[in-house]
């Protein structure tokens, strides 16, 4: 395993949108320390869809949260769009922690959709979508609203523009959340179990919005239990267990012809 | 059930139940007893000559009393405004990563909550005795400027800041509770969008915390209205309680003047309650009127979802409008 400070300098124009190298994540210290990620390597080509599968507690969500710096990694490196996330490397190869403002700027290029939506409850659907473009990008309210209305149409909710999140169904809230993330024109979209908190009959509407997004060429990393989605939409399926990537490859290979026993056991349970 | 239902045909429930309610004679007895007691109390108030309602009416609108009301209002709102600003700062300091900030905030709250407001106000009144001159400069180093304490910090300012400092300690805990009540997922979502900490606090966390902060702050404001009567300790002698009791002592009619003070406090409190109602409504927007539930639970809440479905604001066939 490479040393943690060995951040690879990704050549410009590389086809990889995301490059995760030997990432370790430890929560807590001493006796309470929990080693959640134990050396994860992952490459996500630009414009591709990667689905991460695995039992709960395997570190899937943590990996996703390490990619957009919601969690600080303990070792290794994460490079998104050619930028080393969270750090600056000087001429001598020493890492310097980036200022929170710079980290915020890095995050603004990565969209994230959460299991429990996390829409801002005191803002209407359209205000939720306008918030980041106005507050982060400095767009005028008028321009942001224009763009928000386009996005809300794209997720099929033009008739819910001025509803508060509490007045929307779970599926509608999640679609607004996707539109909110898209409003920042991200290069990469992360989905953290986007349908797990939904009633079964609402799952389809969210998956279909995600499918459209994949078709439009968005680079996506999706943590999900929806095997059908993985089979249909993913270019790449990654199976994680106990903090490591057990197996990865095209969906047909990993889902229909798994090599590892752990993958077989997991698929036997969910299929 | 004694209400007449519409004639059969227009009633969508053909077999509507018209059952007799459970007899509750105890309720009637209790209501009558309480009403009689209330009438006795009203009678005792109105017919008792000693209350001197004529004097109450005469002095209710006395210029000294009105001026007292004004000073009371200025002290209440002035000190609350300063206290709110201080409290937000103190609450954020308590949550800071910086241990110095945390400790200073803790010590401030510890001191101002831990000593009686009356004692604090006496000390503020004695400030000019303790420190005849105040100066700004580097400790043990040069001074930039100095002034005579009693010339600049008059009784009014001492009373105002004395009340505000004390109140800020209580409010800081209320604000902290409010900030803690906001789902951490809200901060994460804002972070993921690239918002900076200050913006997240102002745009996302504080507006939601206000829902929790406003009701107890209204309570504190009403409490402050009456706490202002303690500024006589500074001493500041214009506010309502002092003004009315001064007239009472002068005219040898303390009781009607006490009644006047009580009536004014009641009136202002009533107005404050109306204001608080509207504030709560404003900060409650986006949240169901009756539910205080937050997006913590997994999935949509049954009760709220049912209510929304009943209101017809949510499309029944939710998959219909999905782009194919």
Automatic annotation (TrEMBL), chain B:
Keywords: Amino-acid transport, Membrane, Transmembrane, Transmembrane helix, Transport
Leader peptide range in chain numbering: none
Transmembrane segments: 28-48, 68-93, 105-132, 152-172, 253-275
Region of interest: Disordered: 1-20, 290-324
InterPro entries cross-referenced by the UniProt entry: ArtM/GltK/GlnP/TcyL/YhdX-like (IPR043429), MetI-like (IPR000515), MetI-like_sf (IPR035906)
CDD domains documented for this protein: TM_PBP2
Subcellular location: Cell membrane; Membrane
Cited Pfam families: BPD_transp_1
Biased composition (Low complexity): 303-312
Membrane topology term: Multi-pass membrane protein
Protein name: Amino acid ABC transporter permease
Species annotation: Promicromonospora kroppenstedtii
